[in-house]
Specification:
Number of helices: 5
Strand content: 25-35%
Structural class: alpha+beta
Order of helices and strands: HEHEEEHEHEEEEHEEEEE
Radius of gyration: 21 Å
């Protein structure tokens, strides 16, 4: 869920010979996944068949293993309950604002017992009678910690952190009571080092420069941009009092400021914004309005 261009979904489909179901909100990224399915079907027509169902759904059939890879352009929160109930594993490859994390936790309660869940943010306990439980930490293929730290964490290499990023890692329990018992037992018996998980669920590179926000002026009463607008967000490693404007320096940020295209999701009462970057779909909360410029 939040499949991007579908690389992970397609890889699991091809390597494990299991049904895969991917959802992507951005039409541009979904279109790249759709093109990949079509290319594979054209390259090996004896094994794969491509089927389109409208402008936002497509399917690749593996005729040899009788499996399917479905991709949908839409919101992950609209994933059918029947799909969730049939899933053996769910990967939430998306950064969710805090208010949406609760909705995602509620959605995951539709999963069957035993389903494994990997996601950026810790989602357990965000709704009443939550069934998200820690995965028991065991060695896999002789590698200690390969199944997580036993208390809801799993360290995996990522494009932004090749030495390993901390993900939340769960197994859906039969009931809320059994999930709570698993948490109590896991915490009491924890012996390995705990994996650090970013509670915001947003592994954005922009956070590394948040300290420079301290020198920016206080938010004004109004700006030329608002909710739904396409904007540019500037970040700098240096504490500039004024970031200037896009185009003032070099495109690669050698002037000290990097500008990233994004869309404004919401604006809080204090003027700070929640934005979504265009390049990777990352969501960033509490973005200082003085670092935002209208397109």
């Amino acid at each position: 869920l939040g499949m991007g261009t579908g690389k992970a979904a397609l890889q699991l489909f091809l390597r494990l010979h299991r049904d895969a179901y991917g959802v992507e909100l951005a039409p541009s990224r979904w279109a790249l996944a759709d093109a990949a399915l079509q290319s594979l079907a054209k390259a090996v027509p004896s094994r794969f068949r491509y089927e389109a169902a409208g402008g936002s759904t497509a399917r690749l059939l593996d005729l040899e293993f009788n499996t399917t890879c479905d991709i949908v352009c839409g919101s992950l929160l609209d994933t059918p309950a029947s799909i969730l109930a049939s899933a053996s594993a769910i990967v939430l490859e998306v950064c969710l604002p805090r208010e949406v994390q609760r909705l995602a936790c509620e959605m995951l309660q539709n999963c069957s017992a035993g389903c494994r869940v990997v996601c950026y943010a810790p989602l357990h306990g965000l709704v009443d009678r939550c069934r998200l439980a820690p995965v028991i930490s065991t060695a896999h293929a002789g590698i200690p910690g390969a199944m997580g730290d036993g208390v809801g964490g799993l360290c995996l290499p990522a494009s932004w952190k090749d030495i390993g990023h901390g993900f939340a890692f769960y197994e859906v329990a039969q009931s809320a009571e059994s999930a709570q018992a698993s948490w109590d037992s896991a915490i009491a018996q924890q012996s390995s080092e705990r994996v650090t998980i970013d509670a915001s669920g947003c592994p954005s590179r922009a956070k590394k420069t948040k300290y420079t926000d301290d020198v920016l002026p206080s938010p004004r009463k109004s700006y030329s941009w608002g909710k739904g607008d396409r904007v540019f967000v500037g970040y700098s490693w240096l504490p500039f009092l004024d970031l200037g404007n896009p185009g003032d320096g070099s495109a690669d940020g050698l002037d000290g400021v990097t500008w990233m295209p994004a869309h404004v999701i919401s604006v809080s009462e204090d003027g700070f914004a929640t934005i979504c970057y265009e390049d990777d779909g990352t969501t960033e909360e509490q973005v200082h309005p003085e670092s935002v410029r209208h397109e």
